[in-house]
Amino acid sequence: MTKMRSLKLLFLLIPLLTGMSSFAREGSLSIDSCYSMADANYPLVKQYALIARSRDYSIANANKAYLPQFNIAGQATYQSEVTSLPISLPGVNITPLSKDQYKLYGEVDQPLTTLVTQKSQKEFIDATSKIEQQKTEVELYKLKERINNLYFGILLIDAQIAQTRLMKKDIESGLAKANTAIANGTALKSSGDNLKAELLNIDQRIIELNANRKAYLKMLGLFINAELADDIKLETPNIKLNTAGINRPELRLFDMQKNAFNVQDKLINAKNLPRFSLFIQGGVGRPALNFLNNDFRTYYIGGLRLNWSLSGLYTAGKEKKIIDLNRKAVDVQKEVFLFNTNLALEQQNSEVQKAQELIDTDNDIISLRESVKNATKNQLEYGTATSNDYITAVNAEDKARQNLLIHRIQLLLAQYNVQTTSGN
């Protein structure tokens, strides 16, 4: 798992190291490269390495359960009474035991039944590590929505700038017609001034749009850790909606959490099993193993030891019921998540359909507005239409074209939101 996570981090960093110079040189940037660079740059990505390192340390500690356990102990006591023989023999002097007694020993204990417990412990460490990594994955996935809003916001501004410049050409063309009419005496000089004022308004609008674009680029650059040039081109993505169901990282998180509960079940069973170990103990004491000998003597003892704590059986049943309740709680969370996600997808699919229908209508409106504008421009030359009439016609066509641009970007954004929400 650690190796796979390291490979993923490498793949995330490759676009950051190579993609930045590529789009800087070519002067273009795609939304997929934004996703990759944002993932690699976001501070939360450092959490992967910390989780992997913590897991490795925990597994290393669990592996040490196989190793022999060393203990050193000692005691010095004084007791009010000692063992004595209730007999006396002629000519035999039996020295009574000292009431001050001493013992110092070391013990080596080699567990024999840690395999089952250790295996379950390592599985639990691995399961909790995967959960933490997947939580990080869930948080990183939320970046996509923020990147979508910035990226398509810039695309919309680019389209508005292009359309505004086309509108400026229309006004300039109308000004040329008005100047001809003024020269012929069929229009007043104020008609030309009116169109010139409109050109200045258009220039101001372009300035505002460029300022907004620069601000959006700045925010996008912060997400992907790149300084984006003002003239950088954002590629308009082509998308085919994938309706293969929901494939969000949250679903994998729910499955991992349930798997961790299954491992906890195994741990409860394992910790209540009897434990066997081999041991050898050696030391010095007064008395030693021969309690009738009142001298300091060395000793040793070895054998097989059984240790079985039965108190865990009192709570094992309740602990398993708690785990089962937690497992059901995860099922409820998953059900709620799927319900909310499907609800969001229904709304977003409606937005896609609405945008497509609006685009069809926009094309008809543009065709009609363009026809009116061209007719008004011809009338302007002969003095049968005023500059205000022409500006009104140009603005009407511009509004229709702006609506088309907005609806196209809204369609793309809605489609990408569907993909992001479904995880496909």
Provide a concise account of the structure shown.
This protein is 68% helix and 12% strand.
Structure description:
- The chain has helices at 2-26, 31-41, 46-63, 114-141, 143-183, 189-224, 249-271, 312-382, 387-422; strands spanning 28-29, 69-78, 100-111, 233-234, 275-286, 297-307.
- It is rod-shaped.
- A 4-stranded antiparallel sheet has the order 2-3-5-6, with no helix packed on it. It has a two-stranded parallel sheet with strand order 1-4.
- It has 424 residues and is of the alpha+beta class.
- It contains 9 helices and 6 strands, in the order αβααββαααβαββαα.
The profile of the biggest β sheet is: 4 strands, antiparallel
Strand composition percent: 5-15%
In round numbers, the mean pLDDT is: 82
In one word, what is the shape?
Answer: rod-shaped
Count the beta strands.
6
Order of helices and strands: HEHHEEHHHEHEEHH
Helix fraction by DSSP (H/I, runs of at least 4): 55-70%
Main structural class: alpha+beta
Strand order of the largest sheet: 2-3-5-6
Low-confidence stretches: 1-25
Give me the number of helical elements.
9
Terminal Cα span:
23 Å
If you compute it from the alpha carbons, what radius of gyration comes out, rounded to the nearest whole angstrom? Answer: 41 Å
